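The following block was generated as part of the benchmark described in Methods. Ligand: phosphoribosyl ATP.
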Amino acid sequence: MNVLRLAIQKSGRLTDESLELMRECGIEFNKATGKLKSPAYNFPLEFLFLRDDDIPEYVADGVADVGIIGENVLAEEQHKIKDTVTIVERLGFSRCRLSIAVPKTFHYDDVQNLRGVRIATSFPTILGNFLREKGIQAEIHEISGSVEIAPSIGLAEAICDIVSSGSTLLSNGLVEVETIFKSEAVLIGRKLDAEKQHVLDDLCFRIQSVNRAKNNKYIILNARTENIAAITSLLPGIKSPTVTPLAETGWCAVHSVVRENQFWDIIEKLKAAGAEGILVIPIEKMIL
Ligand code: PRT
Ligand code: ZN
């Protein structure tokens, strides 16, 4: 069997959630610290632990077959890999945005105020694309870390950096003025031979089942028979809700699946329609 080589960030923000996702997919392995490679025991997969910035090029060169990185890194490295590497699956974790921020004292109305300004960033390609699209001439000052301190030490008038909660900007007296890229962790890959593609398809099927389960909740509720029609109309479910009679006459139990993002909204409506004893249960895997 052909082993699929999956590159994962060696040690950083993506590492734990990438490995956790593989465990949720039923893949067993041991990650010994300091090791560059680790085989999976029960799936034709080998992990390669690398710096995230190097992963797109390693996938393009064939050192790895697939990899997990932030979409921002893929966009930043795109010019090195052309169209050989593409997104295979969106993974939904490590969500963040790449934004331009300026000191509180900077007068900012719109992007025109960035003309001639020095902007410090670790993402010169994405920033360069944005400025070109907007027709703005500014000076991109590439630095590799601690971008947020650049204005206070006089290195630049503005920055372009990753923002998640916004607390780093706040504590450095900076205000977010433009969001130029939205990112989440993605599985990237290149063209593979039939045997490896088959392993990748199997892995993607597992990832989709895990992520679909995370985005949905199983709900069980009781209601009087006369309220069932109104209640089931609120519950689309995978096909349609399951309705079973209770031992007490005139009552039924309804089982269904609701999307996490619609959940609170639906619960309020269900209560108003006469639902009682509502149980909400996490789903482990969801296969359509
Ligand atoms: O060593 P290696 O090169 O492998 O790692 P790295 O230091 O380049 O990357 P790492 O581990 O910091 O981040 C990996 C990926 O996580 C990024 O490419 C993003 O896709 C994603 N991610 C998600 C983030 C954040 N959230 C994040 N908050 N990456 C960085 N940050 C930093 C940001 O640079 C800023 O300093 O956190 C700060 C802002 O956070 P808030 O919450 O204060 O806004
Ligand atoms: Zn990096």
